[in-house]
Amino acid sequence: MKILQIDSSILGDNSVSRELTAHIAAQLKQDNPGATFTTRDLAAQPLAHLTAAIYTGLQTPDAGDNAELADNFKVLEEFLAADTVIIGAPMYNFGIPSQLKAWIDRLGVPGKTFSYTAEGPKGLAGGKKVIVASSRGGAYKDMPHETAMDHQEAYLKALLGFIGVTDIEFIRAEGIGMGAEARSKAIDGAKGQISAVKAAA
Ligand SMILES: Cc1cc2nc3c(=O)[nH]c(=O)nc-3n(C[C@H](O)[C@H](O)[C@H](O)COP(=O)(O)O)c2cc1C
To answer: Is 9 in the pocket of ligand 1 (CB under 6 A)?
Structure first.
């Protein structure tokens, strides 16, 4: 079994999503001692904005001797090879960090993760589980403003669904900016959810 951990928070040791991804990884390691773990820290080693050369290059069979394209292929292949993917996804400005968006830009590749058929779009990257560690300063879940303002979890769900991933679990700590008590309650609540997390069957 292959497990991939993605972190994208810019807040280092103060990051809530990183605290949660670390807990999720520890839980999965304990439950799956034989699993192979790969980690990618998108804040420490950011991916560049997507370019036309990379976008079209990723649609070719392989990178040939193009080293930059090979690095980008590695990002896509890591995702495709993983059975379970843990994504640390803070809400920044109602969406996801641009670091995480740059990673996603390596996944939305026609012919690799989706295709258009006579019946409509078809996801090609199914059969894996994604666990999203979601952190946000305000509260959105089941609130009247959820649909209008949550472009973080809703976006990830739509994007992953489009490429065929339907087994998505959100571990959520929200209200992080609403005082120390709310912050620790939210983190404790999310950690409580983690004990029930299981890797892809
Ligand atoms: C650059 C930035 C933008 C943010 N934008 C929002 C926002 O739009 N809505 C919100 O509820 N919280 C917002 N927050 C608060 C974060 O969602 C919150 O601090 C969360 O814990 C961030 O996850 P992290 O600690 O893993 O970085 C923002 C924080 C930062 C640093």
So the answer is: yes
Measured CA to CA in angstroms, residue 59 lies from 9, 40, 63, 122 at distances of 29, 22, 10, 16
The pTM for the full model equals 0.98
Decide whether any atom of ligand 1 lies within 6 Å of the 72 Cβ: no
- What confidence score (pLDDT) does residue 200 get? 92
Ligand 1: residue whose CA is nearest its atom 1? 92
Task: Please write the tens of the pLDDT for every residue from 155-177.
Answer: 999 999 999 999 999 999 999 99
In this predicted structure, the answer to whether residue 47 has a pLDDT above a threshold of 90 is yes
Q: How far is the CA of 14 from the centre of ligand 1 (A)?
A: 11
SS3 130: strand
On average, the pLDDT of the chain sits at: 97
Which atom number of ligand 1 is nearest to the Cα of residue 18? 26
Of 168, 141, 174, 171, which is closest to residue 25 (Cα–Cα)? Answer: 171
Output the CA 37–ligand 1 centroid distance in Å.
27
